Amino acid sequence: MSPRVEADPKAWIYANWLWRPTSVVTGRAALSLQMEPRIDVPTIDALLPYRYADRGLLRFHHASLPGELITDIGMGLAASPEAAALFLGSHGDWAPICDALRTGAVTADEIRRARELLPRRSDARLMDLTVRYTSGAPYSVPELEFHELLRILGITGWKANCPVRLNVTEGGRPVVRERYPDAAFEAEKLAVEINSEKYHNSSDAFARDTLRARWFATEGWRQFPVTPAQLRNNPNDLLADLCSRLHRDHRPAGLPRVEYRPEAPFWRVVG
Length: 271
Prior knowledge:
Number of strands: 13
Radius of gyration: 21 Å
Mean pLDDT: 94
Helix content: 25-40%
Strand order of the largest sheet: 3-2-1-5-4
Order of helices and strands: HEHEEEEHHHHHEEEEEHHEHHEE
Structural class: alpha/beta
Low-confidence stretches: none
Distance between the termini: 56 Å
Largest sheet: 5 strands, mixed
Number of helices: 11
Strand content: 15-25%
């Protein structure tokens, strides 16, 4: 390969299809070909029906997919977004999955249905965890981790990324707007928002967040903002504050202490 393009993931993808036309690109590379905006692709994962040594940016895997989970994108074959998400989850790469969910490139239901098409796999347990972690359609890794923390501790009464209808005033006229809290406790009218600097650190974001807070307040909702650092570094303080605002039926009888760890299953109960 020419030195001018040897660091270009797309060049390696196309070279792979030329060398091995039956290979199916998966993982980050497959998502990058089928969603906008593009995601980082440090290496290209490709499935082959036989074993083959890695080469350059190419990482080969001895595996196959049913036809329903393969997309012909013209130049070659790629795993469907839902199959690529299952592959990434099995390898602990959660950020591109969340990006795909946030942009609508894939849905939680599509990931679940793809798992049903792959009944007997060596990575079945990891794929099942991927279905579990993405069931709330998290838009970011901290959001995914927060949803899993609620599940582990048995905190109930919440829905993830479901529409909340808000009757507000715009231009002097009443209108209905829908907003999607990261976790909404409808009975308590409590909206949990995981606010990272990536999406909430600009004057436009400040204006949007302020308007959003006003709209929720108009309908009697309270917002419960959390940063990723607060979630990971002080989860027990966060949980105590959250549970103090929940109905008795929605919180555990006893709240154990937990510790965060950066790899799945993310949380360890320590007492």
